[in-house]
Amino acid sequence: MVLFENRYRTHDFGLLLLRVGIGVMFTIHGYPKLVGGPEMWAQVGGVMKLVGLDFAPVFWGFLAAVAEAVGGQLLALGLFFRLACALLLGTMMMATIMHVSSGDAFGAYSHALESAFLFLGLLFTGPGRYSLDQMLFPSRTLRRLY
After folding, report:
1. Does the keyword tRNA processing apply (predicted)?
2. How big is the CA angle at 81 (ends 75 and 83), to the nearest 5 degrees?
3. Which residues contact 13 (CB under 8 A, 6 or more apart)?
């Protein structure tokens, strides 16, 4: 059956849908943290104490807010894609660590953990053909294949 054949011609379109959907959601989720200012950043960045980084919580919180809000936009556009995925992966790992160390139930940290796996997978997969990275920095492999 055609449905089960291993001919994924829509691979790049699927990556586009995934990037845009997740990117928009993370932008919406991170924007309030970004505009929350230093008090919000200090609260978010205070989580870094859990891994031994108990200095500059405002900086770490600001970095997390930028990773979610701006990283989400970069993800959706497919621009500096792997950097955005790496920053979002780190942010989601810290969110998971925070929930687990607080003794929260699986339901409380499952979103962060699932997102961490998503960004790790995307980090290896890349943004696909329909991305600004591909337009600005075309890979030799894709140029030859298409």
Report:
1. no
2. 110
3. 130
Residue 131 backbone class (left: φ over 0; alpha: ψ -120 to 50; beta: rest): beta
How many angstroms separate the CA atoms of 56 and 42, rounded?
8
Encode pLDDT of 33-72 as tens digits. Answer: 999 999 999 999 999 999 989 999 999 999 999 999 999 9
Q: In the 8-state DSSP scheme, what is residue 128?
A: -
Model confidence, pTM? 0.88
Distance CA 103, CA 42 (A): 22
Smallest CA-to-CA distance from 109 within 90, 88, 94, 87 is with 94
Report the alpha-carbon distance of residue 138 to residue 121 in Å, rounded.
21
Q: DSSP for 52-110, please give it.
A: T--S-HHHHHHHHHHHHHHHHHHHHHTSSHHHHHHHHHHHHHHHHHHHHHTT--HHHHH
Q: How many CA atoms lie within 13 A of 57 on its CB side?
A: 16
